[in-house]
User: Fold this.
Amino acid sequence: MSDVENLHAMIVFARVVETLSFTDAAKALGLSKSSVSKEIAALEIRLGTRLLLRTTRKIQVTEVGMTWYHYCARILSEVKSAELFIRQYHEEPTGSLRVVAPVTFGCQCIVPVLNQFVANNLHVSVDLDLTDRPVNLVEDNVDIAIVIRRDAPAEANAKPLMDISWGLYAAPEYLQRFAPILGPDDLPRHDFILFRGPAHTLSLPFKKDKQKRNIEVRSRFRANNSTALVNSAIAQTGIAYLPDYIAQAAVKAGSLQRVLPEWEMELYRSYILYRHEGVISPRVRLFMEALQKALRVESAQV
Assistant:
């Protein structure tokens, strides 16, 4: 018994059970009534059992036939899902795209991609929530959430975006006022600009080849906003500990420079979390593809 032959027969049989009519099943499948009848008869012979009881007035499903129908129905459901996937894959994206992203990363890295996506897809509207609070895709009714973590998310519905490395940055004028910083041990004598936390001190991790160091530094200026930290560093308040992408524009402008660039520091990665309820809608799929493409390029340039 051929698997392909049996698969076709299962689909035909499922339609007959659902309509209890050879005529209606034939119309739904685009076959002749005689073809459906022959398919069922051949199927019963191959299986060695009666699936349907046929009279001139009605069709009844046997107990074996009803049990076997449930297996057939699953096959038919998968066929429908496959057809829906291909149809939606080629459809023009429409509807509202609901996105949540961290405030700073969202402003600098996600918004430019969203702007281009909206310009390229006239029938899509975007609802963006910039927040640093934890997000639940289902409870918050969100299509896509951007998260930043050290370790990969446990969720299966996650796609990686760009790596986010951290470094030390200071204004050239600030660095000229002091002796050269030759290694991590020279850092404790400097003032630091840090993201707001529960303590005024922070242990900074350094790695180079097989060397690993943790240097405790103290901050005189702390804030929960990256723009404030960058501006404070440009104003020569001290050395700022920042994600590299945040400092990139100031470095290009010559307002900041990397301190100890030969040493690696913390590394995080951004991820897309998306709702997966069977088939991914065109607007969600296309935006995820655009985001991955754009941030891969940006990550390579940092």
About this structure: DSSP finds nine helices and twelve strands in the chain. The radius of gyration is 31 Å. Residues 52 and 61 are 5 Å apart (CA to CA).
